[in-house]
Amino acid sequence: MTTYGQLAIETVGLEKAFGDQKAVAGITLRVPAGSVFGFLGPNGSGKTTTIRMLLGLAEATKGEINLLGYSIPKQLADVLPKVGALVEGPAFYPYMSGRNNLIRMDSADRNSNSRTREQRVDAALERVGLSNAAKKKVHAYSLGMKQRLGLANALLKPRELLILDEPTNGLDPQGTREVRNLIRSLASEGITIFLSSHLLSEIEQLCSHVAVMRAGEIVAQGSMNELRSNGQTRLILEVDQVAEAKAILKAAGISKTKIIGRKLICSVDSEMDVAKLNQELVAKKISVSEIRLEHPSLEEYFVDLTGEGFEVVR
Amino acid sequence: MLSELKVMFTRRRTWAMLAAIAMIPILLATAVYLSADQIAPGEGPPFLDRVTQNGLFTGFTAMLLAMPLFLPLTMAVVSGDTIAGEAGLGTLRYLLIAPVGRARLLVVKYLGTLTFALVGTFVLMIAGAISGAILFPVGPVTLLSGDVIQIPEAFGRMALVALYTTVSMMGMLALGLFISTLTTIPVGAMTGVLVASGVSQILDNLPQLAWLHEWLFTHYWLDFADILRQPVELGSLGSNLILQLGYVAVFGALAYGRLASKDILS
């Protein structure tokens, strides 16, 4: 176990107000150490503002922040070397090469080891697949390359926590896949990853935990499995003899059945034994052309929570 | 610090400005050379007639020409860019989470601008000496006080003028650093610094405001001529140093106050 216990990030009543408007309205985040934590919400829901406060770039109006056991902003200088971050897109000096940009960023930290610098920079470039473009000036980089350089910047030192704000923004499908694989491999090394995204599919593919933000508030938080269980699993059955099948389902305790043509759709327990039901149906000489469980779509659940599409600006 | 200088001197803009600074004495020397017959002593900018007699004066004359506008312009560009430039690029947030402390960032940025000032003034004096030496006779230099110094000592005086001018820029560079913390648009900060230097020079020329003059950061800018006397008059040089350090203290503190409490939202 880590020195900071169970939580890599903890906020209590974290609030950020700009004038009258609360961009972040008293949120309590609990990011378990070792998790890949999705921070999901529509654009403009306060995700980036939260991240800025976590990293000490913006001052919280109210509330407490604990990062890897360090109190923010008081112990910022102690904790930041252990945290790699990508905040609101990558930013570099366009007139310098990718490699020199990383060297510059690494030298900004007075405590980073200058003897291992070049080696660490090259390793980070290698890790994100930019070794060949290392000597090119950044203004010649595509958006995807800049995004990967931003990730390399977050990986210059051994990290305990990575805070990644929309890391696949602007990447082509190939690049998106590569970045997701990179995130998976980093997670497998035990690094806690806090990943903000407005893309549900991304969170679903990568994350073990999630918090959903809407208009500055967290409307749901927990492990993916916990949140999934909030929805309803459905059984979808396609048979020739609809009436007989319905009777068998009723006998099995499944009463609410919707019939569309040859299809029966009903709400069931997520753990139900589909194979056993199939055997029963077949035993009764009912020919089954389709039988499957459909787990609740997180998308529907989250859209219910956030009350709007994920691309909508508040 | 090295990294800061590397960033500054990788930029084409820095080199373009240094080249432009070097062009001032070169153009001056060429123009004077091509029209050497027509300049009557005492006509045109001070020292201009001396250039034809002794090429080593080119640097001093060029400095006089560059002081009111051109040199401050390049200083405004460099100092206005310090924080605002990083904020505009977005690199400021990455520097701060690297992490670099905000106070240290300001100190390094300021020393960077000071280095540029030093390099710029030396470039001007050296380009002046070289172009003057090529086009005009070179010999022992007659100072403003009438004394004559030998060539090696003349070079020493040139270095002193460059150092003095750098000191003269310290206040303005600190002001630029402060203005640069107020915005994320570098051009805005640069313009602000340049306007401040213009206003200060205008105020310095209004006799009604004589009481204010010795507090203006531009007040002693042209006093480097005192270095061209024998012995060097230290009075205004010392006053200038104290004044400039005062500006550095005030605007350095303001810049820190501003940056330390600022939310970095760019």
Layout of helices and strands, plus pairs?
The complex is a heterodimer of chains A (314) and B (266).
Chain A: E1 7-18, E2 21-27, E3 30-32, E4 36-40, H1 47-54, E5 62-67, E6 70-72, H2 76-79, E7 83-86, H3 98-108, H4 117-127, H5 143-154, E8 161-165, H6 173-188, E9 192-197, H7 200-206, E10 209-214, E11 217-223, H8 224-228, E12 233-239, H9 242-251, E13 257-260, E14 263-268, H10 274-283, E15 288-294, H11 298-306
Parallel strand pairs in A: 4-9, 4-10, 7-8, 8-9
Antiparallel strand pairs in A: 1-2, 1-3, 1-5, 5-6, 10-11, 12-14, 12-15, 13-14
Helix pairs in contact in A: 3-4, 4-5
Chain B: H1 2-10, H2 12-34, H3 48-53, H4 57-66, H5 70-89, H6 91-96, H7 102-135, E1 141-142, E2 148-149, H8 151-180, H9 186-204, H10 210-213, H11 235-260
Antiparallel strand pairs in B: 1-2
Could you please describe the fold and organization of this structure?
By secondary structure, chain A is α/β, with parallel strands linked by helices. Chain A has eleven helices and 15 strands. Chain A starts with 6 loop residues before the first strand and ends in an 8-residue tail after the last helix. Chain B has 266 residues and is mainly α. Chain B contains eleven helices and two strands. A two-stranded antiparallel ribbon of chain B has the order 1-2. In chain B, helix 2 crosses helix 4 (57-66), helix 2 (12-34) packs parallel to helix 7 and helix 8 (151-180) crosses helix 9 (186-204). Chains A and B meet through helix 3 of A and helix 1 and helix 6 of B.
